[in-house]
From TrEMBL:
Transmembrane segments: none
Species lineage: Eukaryota, Metazoa, Ecdysozoa, Arthropoda, Hexapoda
InterPro entries reported in the protein's UniProt record: TRAF3IP1 (IPR018799), TRAF3IP1_C (IPR041476)
Protein name: TRAF3-interacting protein 1 C-terminal domain-containing protein
Residue span, TRAF3-interacting protein 1 C-terminal domain: 1-79
UniProt GO molecular function: microtubule binding
Length: 81
């Protein structure tokens, strides 16, 4: 019976050790996530800027295509007259 209490105490100590290690690792993970998020902010801002530039250029391309189609239609009308 004496050994049972010693085993329980040893297991409880080991449980505490693993719980502490888990908590330390979780804290490290959270710290690394924060650092990663902070270091990614400039890249995310640049990405957002580039995506807006792409949308702007796509609108310009669509507008120019529309002008080209209208001009082609007008040229056909003038040639058929």
């Amino acid at each position: 019976m004496n050994y049972l209490h010693e085993d329980i105490d040893a297991m409880h100590g080991e449980l505490q050790m693993w719980t502490n290690i888990k908590n330390q690792l979780l804290n490290e993970i959270h710290k690394q996530k924060r650092l990663s998020a902070e270091s990614n902010k400039p890249l995310l801002a640049q990405l957002q800027h580039l995506q807006e530039e792409i949308r702007k250029r796509q609108r310009e391309i669509s507008s120019i295509r529309g002008n080209i189609l209208r001009n082609e239609s007008r040229i056909k009308e003038l040639l058929n007259v």
